[in-house]
Every structure is written in C-alpha cells, then in structure tokens.
Amino acid sequence: MTNYNLKHQAKSKYAYAYDKHTIHLRLEATKGLVKNVEVVYGDPFFWGPKPDNPDKWEWKIETSKTRLMTKEYSTEFNDHFFISVKPKYKRMKYAFIINDELLFGCREQVNIKDYPKEKKNLFNYFNFPYLNEEDVFNPPSWIEDQIWYSIFPERFSNGDSSINPKETLPWAETNMYSNSQRFGGDLQGIIDNLDYLEEIGFTGIYMTPIFMSDTAHKYDIINYKKVDPAFGSNKKLRELIDKAHKKGFKIMLDAVFNHCGFRHPFFQDVIKNGKDSDYYDCFYIIDDDKPVVNFDLSKDNRIKRESVKKFHKNPDLLNYRSFAFTPYMPKLNTTNPIMKEHLFDVARYWINDYNIDGWRLDVSNEVSHSFWRDFRKVVKNANKDAYIVGENWDNSMPWLQGEQYDAVMNYEFLYPIWNFFGINIDGEKYRPSKFKYTINKVLTDYPKNVLRSMYNLVDSHDTTRIMTICNESSDLVKLPYLFMFTLPGAPSVYYGGEIGLPGEHDPDNRRCMIWDEDKQDKTILAHIKQLISLRKNYPQLRSANLNWIQTNDKQNSIIYKKEDLFILINNSNHIIEINLPTTLQNKVVKDLYNNKKIDLKTTITLSNYEFKLLK
Fold this sequence. Notes:
single chain; alpha/beta
C-alpha cells in the first residue's frame, strides 16, 4: 500500500470552526501522490434503516453537493487539501478516502476495496464533537479593514520642545544612532501629524511603549499608569486618543508584561527588603541566600553600567531572571497574584479611562498561556472589540485558538518577503518557486479566520528597515509593500517607511523621521497611498485565498490571483517578457494601479521591478 504520509488532526489547524455553521477541514499528503480526496462525514447519532433491509439500521452519511477536497496549496514536499462543510446538526464524524481506495481515519488507514465494511466503522473516524459558537475564533470585526502605522514615539516628531529632556539633540543631526540619544519625539508630535496620516489613508496607530521609563525606547517601564514626561502627560495622551478617534483612527498601545524596568517600585522594594518584601515573589530571584543585586548602584538607584559588564561574559552571575540577560529589565512572575492583578489593572485602566482600542504584547511568547487566557478575559470584559496582538516571531498557533490573542505580528510572512524581494539579506535569496512554497506554508499553518486578523509587516522597530533590505532601491521596495497589501490580515507601515527612510538593525532602524519634503521619496509615498486606496476599494485583496498562476525561476517573476484580480511582478532588475495565462490572453483588462484599460496579447513586457494589478 502506498505511503501517502497523510497528516490530519481534529480540533486543530487541520479541523476548526470557521463560523457558527461551518467547519474547515485540511489534509496534508506527500506531494504528487494523491489524485483525489473524498470526505465522508455525518452526525454520529444519526442512524436509520438500511434501504435493502429495514429491520437493520446503519449510520447515515450526510449528503452534500460535493465532498471532494480541493488541492489548495503545495509546499516543497507536500500537497495541502481543503474543504468547507456545514454539518446539519453541528456534530460530525468524518474520514478521508484517498484515491477511491484508502480510508484515512483517526486510528488507522484501511484499504476499503479489500475491507468495504470499514467505510462505516465510526470507531476509526475523526470526531468534531460539537460546533460550539463560543469556541469560534472571533477577533474584532474591524481588524481586517485596518491599515496600521507603527510609531516609535521618540523619533517620530518633536511637537513640544518645552518638555525636551536636558540632553535632547537637534532633530536627526547624527550619523550614528543609539538608544541612549534623545531627540524630543513626543505625543504632541503625533497629534500635529494626524492630518498627514489621515491623508495617506492610515486607519490605526500603534505606538511602542509610552509609559515612564529610563530609556528612549521605554521597554523598561517604571510606572505603567503614567505617560513618560518626555512624551507628555496622561492628559496629552487623552487628547491624542480623542482627536485620533474623531478622525477614525484606532489606537493600540504596547503592553510590556514580560519584564519591567529596574527602577519599578516593586523591584526596588525587593532590593531594599529582600525576602521580607511583599513583592519578592513578583520576580524570579534565583538564589534566596544571595543578595538580589550584586553590582553597583548610583544614589538614585540607577545601575552603574561599568559594574554590569561582567554579565555579558557570564549571565549566570545575575541573581534574578531578566529579559535577554539584561539586568535593566527584571522578568515578572505573572503567576503571582499581586503582580497579576497589577498588570490586569493596567490593562483595564487604559481601556476604561482612555478608550484605547488594543494592546500589543511585548515578548508575549515568554509569558505563560495561563496568564494570557486570563488577560484576554480582563481585556474583553473592558471592551469586547479590543484587539490583542502578540509579539511572536515563530509559528503561533498555540496562542491563536480563540482564548488568548486575536493575532500576532506576522513575522512568518516577513521572512519569505525579505528573502524573495530583498537584496541586503544574510540568508538564502529565494527564487519564485521557493517563495511560493514558504508563503503557502504560512497560509496552511493558520486557519483562514486567523489569517484575516493578523498584523502584517515588512519591517519593525526590531528589524532592519525594508528600504535597507531592498538596498535603498525605490523601485524594488515597492514590491514587498505591494505583496503585503495583497495578503489576508491588516498591513502596517513602520514610520518613515512611506517616504523611504532606511536603517540597519536596532538602533539604526530608529532614526528620526524625515520631515523635510525635499529629502522624502515621494514615489514611495504615492505608492503607499495607492495601495491603501486599492485595498479599501477591492475587498478581494483582503481575501484569505491566494491562487498561484505562474512562478518563473528563470525570469524571477510571479503571477498570482486574488479572486478576479491578477498580480504580475517582475522581481528582476531587467526587462522581461512574460507569457500570460490563457485566462488573460487577448483580453481587455483594467490596470487598477494606473487606472486604465489594457488590451492584452499573449505576452506582456515588464520593465525592471515593474508590476501589474489587473482586473
């Protein structure tokens, strides 16, 4: 019997409730071996008389127009099959029949030509016990329509120089950025530029941390309920949120709940009182018999940098757990009731009192699932439509089953985008076929309703900027943005990306925003505006389905389809002639990007890094 290497699991990414009536089933098999897959399913309790012998009863298979699965995607070594079914009674026993002969069930694979009775052996059937509506993945309905703008506040705009820290430098007057520099970016600067963001078409603003901290990046929070004075005040944040909401923006703040700043009062109390501190178990002290701090502090309890250099060579010397071995950010024990309620109170506070629309969760995969389950209840009780986004850099299905996050920052899409479109990269440069396989892997790793809620990105405050990845080519950088705007999920642009701001990895990626229009790349700005407009006007671009039409490794070109829209991309720096698929040959189509009609022949010529979006 052929080994198809079949993969399926009930109640997982392979079998999930899509909505209150619909179940999606997926099956994975060795590439090229499976010609057809039939799904046999029915209610486990629905039995009736046999047609040829009414005195005996049999299990009744549920009928439908089709039970054949579609080969939806292929990855490098596997084919992925898909079907959407609506079980009449919301319960379902099911199995797969492969190539009309092999029944693939939950316990074994059986040749039904040799053992036909096994076709109705429910003991070997997968089970979807009941489609409970409350178990359906249910992110806020507004998410997939959003276009996010990601802001690192200290470097976006200096709107109020009166609150500048003493060490503030003139705006952008440096060739060497560091996280210790201050340039005076603040909340007033964001308020002053809301019209700018609105005119481009953005509908959401995500800000990296804004709460009281010792650093420019604010990921070492001292007071979670106070806006850092260098950024403004709580009153100024309320003004920003109110004005942004009037313009239709959503506002998402950064929740740093994996760790806090060294000078957080809870941790300072632990340093002072040791095991007698009420907050001792709010952190992870490694050796109770040793001092919490074994390095030098200044008079105001700041860390003397010279005294902690030893931890770079030997992190085992540190006597408390921290983020990335840095003594500046002690890790929080989120199982401790005092710490847990402290953080939950923070989450409620900014939703209830300031009406924020969502939380981005920093280092979220290092915090327990149990904490995030309870966190979700707190947040959704405060505002059922609040958006919860985790910062997970890897496959995140364990967090995306409806009881923790609504989405993650979709770095899984970012990696293949960089490797296909990028030039200034460290790893393998993908050819079109490899790019297709890696994108298909992401599309099959998550349920379709999860894909539609993702926070998509091509760069961030933690990565090299996409302009630098694309070797500062204005023409090339348009392609990764184009591809992101045709993916399911909400696209985001990291501040300055819209005008071609370059930057190497952190801290160089946190350069000051360029406000001198003579130094801005207006062609990229026009491109982003057009992509936003097209995405808003053509919901096909937001679809969770992507149909690959052509991948040409020799030409470095791709053609793919979003429902009735065709996207053609020349990812090479020279002119190419592409053979059109028969569905486009000799047709009059609309070039949506340039808003004009095109009379196609059998081929089309694309210049270097040129693309077409055709309907």
